[in-house]
Design a protein that fits this description.
alpha/beta; six-stranded parallel sheet; globular; three-stranded parallel sheet; TIM Barrel
Length: about 350
């Protein structure tokens, strides 16, 4: 039994073994990994693609991550902040369309203290009682995570970005802590969130070795969700002139994560759709089973630019569900608006 078969059987691989799987395309060709991942996904979730209503509710951020267009040093970023009433009305609209999961994503905006965010979560829970509420609002205190969970939040997305400490320091300013990011993720798991981690593929300084570190971290954390997308530079960041991450390697890593974590909820991301015209369907073929159509109010979603040329089209528009569903149907998948919880 070779390494990828061992991983598919549930064995924990060492960093060196993951490095071999990731780097040796002759022994572990993309097609084999893709077919294994797709088969595993089908055995757990079938051919369903779970659709989440994405609400990008604030573009303010206190952090200065070197790769992100929303970084606080970017004076040219267009900032906006939806009001609590606007967010609730967006959820109500999405609920009327059929969405039963909402993802509230934003920069680490200090305005959204617990005094504001906790009542917002409670309000969404009251008007959309059977919908899953997913938060993606960065690093917070243990007390904040507990309060938001008690208010009704079900899931929390917090990409680890990289599990290599040295690489993390290359991507983030000195006031951001690798140890704190890891603490937050383990706290979210302990509290009982369906927890999402994830990484960018091809960031400056990354390598097969850093991806092997990611895999050992993920198999230890065992998150319920993993978000993977290619690095795409933004023109107003220190990484503006860096090369894009590889779409092929991103797809390879999607398959590897599906094999290692067969029950994981795995998005085919907007970054992947931006980097390749057929990226979204290719992500599904690689083992993904989640897509997040954007239901942010028009006029604001164009301002939420983490990277250049973010795809904003009918394919990403949550008001265009019939077209989205038809595209999946043609590719052999079935779009689903149900909650789509993690299956243990």
């Amino acid at each position: 039994m070779d390494l990828i078969d061992k991983a598919a059987e549930g064995a924990a691989l060492s960093k060196e073994e993951w490095l071999s799987v990731i780097s040796d395309k002759e022994k572990y060709p993309d097609e084999r990994l893709r077919n294994m991942a797709s088969s595993i996904r089908d055995s757990v979730y079938g051919r369903k693609v779970y659709l989440r209503g994405l609400i990008e509710f604030t573009s303010y951020c206190k952090n200065d991550c070197l790769y992100c267009g929303l970084r606080r040093s970017n004076a040219r970023a267009e900032r906006y902040r939806l009001s609590p009433d606007e967010i609730v009305s967006t959820c109500v609209h999405g609920y009327s369309l059929g969405f039963r999961t909402f993802v509230l994503q934003g920069g680490e905006d200090p305005w959204w203290r617990d005094e504001r965010l906790v009542p917002l979560v409670k309000k969404i829970r009251s008007v959309c009682p059977d919908a899953a509420i997913t938060l993606s609002v960065g690093e917070r205190s243990d007390e904040s995570y507990k309060a938001l969970r008690k208010a009704g939040a079900d899931r929390y997305l917090l990409r680890h970005e990289t599990a290599d400490r040295e690489h993390y320091s290359r991507l983030h300013p000195s006031d951001m802590s690798f140890d704190n990011r890891m603490r937050c993720l383990r706290t979210l798991k302990r509290i009982g969130y369906q927890t999402g981690a994830g990484m960018m593929i091809g960031t400056p300084g990354s390598s097969f070795e850093t991806l092997a570190s990611d895999m050992t971290f993920l198999q230890d954390l065992r998150p319920e969700m993993v978000g993977i997308g290619p690095f795409i530079p933004h023109h107003d960041t220190p990484f503006a002139s860096e090369d894009r991450g590889s779409v092929a390697l991103t797809l390879r890593m999607l398959s590897i994560v599906r094999i290692a974590l067969p029950h994981v909820l795995l998005p085919s991301t907007t970054a992947l759709a931006t980097a390749s015209s057929d990226g979204q369907i290719a992500g599904l073929e690689a083992g993904a089973n989640v897509v997040m159509p954007n239901i942010t109010p028009m006029g604001e979603r164009e301002k939420y630019l983490l990277y250049d040329n973010k795809k904003i089209s009918d394919e990403e528009d949550g008001d265009n569900l019939s077209s989205i569903m038809e595209r999946f149907r043609r590719a052999g998948y079935k779009g689903s608006l149900e909650r789509g919880d993690f299956r243990a």
